[in-house]
Amino acid sequence: MEKRINIQITEPQAYKAMFGLEGYLQTAQITKAHKNLIKIRASQINGCAYCIDMHTQEARKAGETEQRIYLLNAWKETDLFTEEEKIILALTEQITLIHAQGVTDAVYQQAEKAFGKNYLAQLIMAIVTINAWNRIAISTQLEPGK
Potential cystine with 42: which of 57, 72, 82, 130 (Cβ 3.0-4.6 Å)? Predict the structure, then answer.
């Protein structure tokens, strides 16, 4: 693979701003399990090997099971995920693939009903943040395990 820029070195203020979002998410109410599902699923959709590698390792360390990680891309076809997790995964997919149909009223309303406005706002910020990280990692060709 061609060596590309390291934005953290070339434009450290940009990375500082991204880490600001991460800092905010560390103080948010979102559970670690929910954050891990969001990060892995968005990274799968975006095809970000670097982030899939990083976040599946983090999820395992936090107690996530191998089976749930393996089946995450087929979450609609299994009962391994709770109803709340399924709502989060649906929201993650719609925001990540926003160009396809936006976020439907049905998914938005389910999420708001299940989580309330504050938790929903935090979920949206978590989804937007991992999508930004995926785009940085893919465009600069960050390699897994490095």
Answer: 130
